[in-house]
Structure formats: C-alpha cells, structure tokens
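Practice problem: predict the structure.
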Amino acid sequence: MRIALGVEYDGTDFLGWQRLTHGATVQGALEQALSRVAAHPIEVTCAGRTDAGVHGRCQVVHFDAPVERDMRGWVLGACSNLPASVAVLWAQAVPEAFHARFAARSRRYRYAILNRPVRAALDARYVTWERLPLDAGAMHAAAQALLGEHDFSAFRAVSCQAAHARRCVLGLQVRREGAQVIIDIEANAFLHHMVRNIVGSLLPVGRGQRPVAWPGELLAGRNREAAGPTAPASGLTFLGPRYENHWQLPAEVSA
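Answer:
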C-alpha cells in the first residue's frame, strides 16, 4: 500500500531534508521513526527537498508500506518516535500512481522578515532580521517582473544540479504584516537557493538602494554575480506542494 504523509518541521537544527551519512536530517529522522512503526526499513520520497535551516509547514512524502497499519497508527507512531521539531500531520492511502514529487503541480514558499530596529527573541528561528525600514510596496512591484516562465539563472546557486534554469513563477506577493514583511512565492518548481536569492535581490529595493526595475534587469541578464546575496535560511518556510484534486489529499495541499 502506498501512503502519503503531511510533515511539519523546524529545520533549524537539521542539515536539510535529504538523508546524509553524517549529521541530522529531516528525512533521516522521519525514516527512522517510520521504520520503527513498521518494524521494517522504510524510505520516503518528498515533494521538494529543503536546505539546512529551512522549515516545512506541510511537506508531503510518500512511501510503500511493507506492513498494514491504520492511518492513525502511522501518525501517532511516527510522532512518538520523532524529535520534538518534527511532526507527522496526517497519513492517507493513495493510488500506486501517486508520486509526491512528480505529481505536484506547484510548490509554495514563504519568507518572513522581521523589520524593526531590535532583533528577534521569540521568533528568531523563523525570521530574518532587517533593521533598516523596508518599502514592502516597492518590493512587491519589483517582484512582479519575475512572474511567468523565465530563465532564472540570475537567482540560481552555483551548486544547483538542475538540468536547466527555466521555471514558471505562478505567484509572487510581498506584503507588510505589522513589523514583518512577508514574501509568498509559488512556482512549478524551484532552483537551488532560488527563493533566497530572489529575496536577497528584493531587499535592496525595499531599502531604497536599488530601483524597482532592478530585479527584472537581473532576470534578463541571467548573471548570478550581479544579483543580491543569498538571504539567510532562517526566514524561509516550505509551505507545501499543490496537487490536483483527483488525488483527494487534504485541502492544504490540493489545488
């Protein structure tokens, strides 16, 4: 039986999603917990890998269960064997054709910036601090040049292993909520560090150091060295993928 899970995690203390031979990863912790529930080795496939320090609101994974357990058993059993920073939100049987990565029609990220003179205490693990005032309206206007399908080489990490840099950004909004500036972005897929590099190029616009047209010019130039720095991982959360309704997954990950 193929099973899909929704997984929430605080990525601060992990070396990223992907299992490694050294150090703690979210995938490693989840597979270890599920293997204990099943009393059999289990490997999972995720909708989108996240980097060290990046959080997940509803990562989706699938695995082929070697034993029968009810869905509540998978959820509670996994949670009881996971560290406090990881939780399985739900489990659901899915058709054999379902694939957490390839069935996803899009992925969504949120970047949170605490924009005030004083650094964060309570939210320090989940935001990036910017002490200079930011113009969220200017950042939003600048971001609209990135909508649609483009070559995003200007916002691609040197270490990116994707076959090409063409991606389609379906939505990109910047707004202020009190002391925070929130950046929401949805795309069919993302390049390595793409969101953080986009944020790093919107921040100078928000500070008034660059014109609104600058991110669009960077996009057209396709030169990573000309763009802004990579924003810190702490402010980034993978909200989750979206799937077609016919998979009948929970509303938070359905189109």
